[in-house]
Amino acid sequence: MSDCPILVWMLSLNREYTKEEYNACYKVVEDCVPHIKIPHDPPNPDSFRQIMTQMLPLLMMRHRRIPRAKWRDCATPNGKHWIEQAPDDMPPEKYLHSMIGYHLTYETSLCGMAMAQGIQRKVINIGLGIKHVAVEPRGTALATYVAAMAPRLTPAERQLIGPELGDEAVLRRLSILLALKAAYIHAIGQPPGFDWARLEFDIPRETARGDGHPLQGWEFRIFRASLGVARKNILVEEHYQCVCAFFRGTKESTFVWHESAKELESWVQFINIDQMVKVIPKLTA
């Protein structure tokens, strides 16, 4: 798997933010990613999520010690992003392999960025799916929530989440299915109206199909994230099902399950609001 290594950054919105923090982060995005237009709306948590998510590429490039002036953000016609570094002092062969394809997404208290480095046409086919393992809206009966999500599933997938499994297993399996679909839809750059039921994931058999045909050449990395989040004065634990989808072009599609924190250490990095706010002065350099 040395060809196009994958890295994921996860930012936990682990506490309430202040207006000052919102404004400082907003200014960074305004200055460094001017093509991304986010309305200024400090009281709106969704606006803060968008801003923090857009700061992840800045943080990643800063981590690589590449100043902001030395790279540019590019996108394909269907919105797949990649970062191109200035070719100075780089041999042409190295330059070709220096492209960083990435995808950004967020849900509830978790913002994420998945990236791969290599040749541009290879690295842009990456997507991240994040699913909060919880019913929405909060307090909904599980059966009601499952029924609301049913149109996104195929009949075979619905059988994988039968009520006889018990609430916890149903919710977890449903979250895995939705995260797999979101990751794949993001990786291929589909618009929001895409019909999720065109995709079918058979979790026990580890197979994937699109429009009835096998999806070949994909790598699906499936992992969980658990966060402690302070809401007012109470610490609550939130669980997320995450999937990174990447097109490797191999003959078969593979499903890689990462069950322990140890397995994630080599390719998933977790940070929180405090860590992001602390590096703001360095991000604009």
UniProtKB/TrEMBL annotation:
<dbReference type="GO" id="GO:0008897">
    <property type="term" value="F:holo-[acyl-carrier-protein] synthase activity"/>
</dbReference>
<dbReference type="GO" id="GO:0000287">
    <property type="term" value="F:magnesium ion binding"/>
</dbReference>
<dbReference type="InterPro" id="IPR037143">
    <property type="entry name" value="4-PPantetheinyl_Trfase_dom_sf"/>
</dbReference>
<protein>
    <submittedName>
        <fullName>Uncharacterized protein</fullName>
    </submittedName>
</protein>
